[in-house]
Structures are given as C-alpha cells and as structure tokens.
Design brief:
Layout lengths: L1 H22 L1 H41 L6 H13 L5 H11 L6 H14 L4 H15 L5 H12 L6 H14 L3 H13 L5 H14 L3
Helix pairs in contact: 2-3, 2-4, 3-4, 4-5, 5-6, 6-7, 7-8, 8-9, 9-10
C-alpha cells in the first residue's frame, strides 16, 4: 500500500513538472536567452574595458618617455586627455605627473582637474581621500586658511587613513603663519588619534616638545 502511494506521488510530481515546463516553456527560453545575452555582453564590455586600460597605460608611458622631446603644450594636452578619461589608475597618475613637472602655470586649471578626479571619477574611497590630500598639499603654499580647511574637511571628518596627514598639513600650515595656538591644537589631535601614522605622530610630538613648549 505504501509503495503504491509512493509511486502515485512520484507520478504526480513528474506530471506537475511536465505541465510546468510545457506551460512555461516560452518564459524559460526567454529567461535562459536573457542570461546568455547578459553573460556575453558582460564579457564583451569587460574585454573592451581591459583593452582601453592597456591603451591608456601605453599612452601614459609614451607621454613620460617623450616628455623632454615634445613641446610643453603637447605634453599638457596628452595628460589632460588621460585625466578626462576618468580612469581610476591613470587619470590620477597623469595629474601627478603634470604637477610634479610644474607644467601648468595656472593653479585654477590644476584645481579644476583635481575636482574632476574627485567628483567625477569612480575611485576607491581612500584613493579619493589621497587625491583630496594632494589637492590640499598643492594649494597650501598660496591658499587661505578657510579654503585649506574646506578642501580637507572630508578627510578630517572621517576615519580615513589619511586623516593624520591632513591634520599634520594643517598644523604645519598654521605653524608657518606663526599661529602657534592653532598649530598646537592640530598637533595634539594627531597625538590622540588612534590610527595616526606612526611617523607623523613622532614628528608631531617632536614639534610640540621642541617648538611649542611641551
């Protein structure tokens, strides 16, 4: 009796599966087709992305190799083109090369490129914070206190690994302006910050002991 019931149940399940496949055949075919097309498109665009990455890497390397051969404006134009590609790797490298070699005389243009990287490029959060810090470092020799604070606020108000770097930049900025009270406040923040860079913490303590009466 139990064996007969088991056979009936098995037959019933098989019949339900057959009916499900029969009545949903079109939907199943469409679903499988969508999955296959999606996979093909993913592989296709991944391949294009990888090729573009290699192309951009080659272009950046050529700019560096030909830097002293080309006219200054040609190098600037090629670097800006790379930055405008909004690539997470080579766009920042192109901007750093431009800055390190002092190719732009207009600081406004450089800051616009920084803003393009920070605001329009898909970057890892800590890479973005590093670029913000580099923007602040670039501006620190000629900007105002308020503008420097505005640039660094996203890092200062976070738990970023670059926070102690940002605080140290501000501390040295105020120290250079002979605003020792403000400088001392930022050096002290570095000392008590749990994840401060060890070298920066040591330098901050030295500054406090040697120059700020601690």
């Amino acid at each position: 009796m139990d064996e007969e019931i088991s056979i009936i149940d098995s037959n019933t399940r098989n019949e339900k599966i057959k009916n499900f496949l029969f009545y949903n055949k079109k939907n199943l075919i469409v679903s499988i087709a969508i999955i296959i097309v999606g996979l093909v498109l993913y592989l296709f665009f991944s391949e294009i992305k990888e090729r573009n990455k290699i192309k951009l890497a080659n272009k950046f390397n050529l700019v560096k190799i030909n830097y002293k051969k080309n006219e200054k404006q040609v190098t600037i134009s090629e670097l800006v083109e790379i930055i405008n590609q909004k690539d997470a790797t080579y766009s920042p490298l192109a901007l750093y090369f431009l800055i390190d070699n002092s190719l732009f005389e207009d600081n406004t243009k450089t800051n616009k490129l920084f803003d393009e990287l920070i605001g329009q490029t898909n970057l890892d959060e800590e890479i973005k914070n590093l670029i913000i810090y580099k923007k602040a470092l670039f501006n620190s020799n000629f900007t105002t206190e308020n503008d420097l604070l505005k640039i660094l606020n996203p890092i200062i108000n976070s738990e970023s690994i670059w926070k102690s770097h940002a605080l140290y930049l501000l501390a040295e900025f105020f120290y250079s302006k002979d605003e020792k009270k403000k400088a001392k406040e930022f050096f002290n923040q570095i000392i008590i910050l749990p994840n401060s860079n060890s070298d920066i913490k040591i330098e901050s303590q030295k500054r406090l002991n040697r120059d700020l009466g601690e």
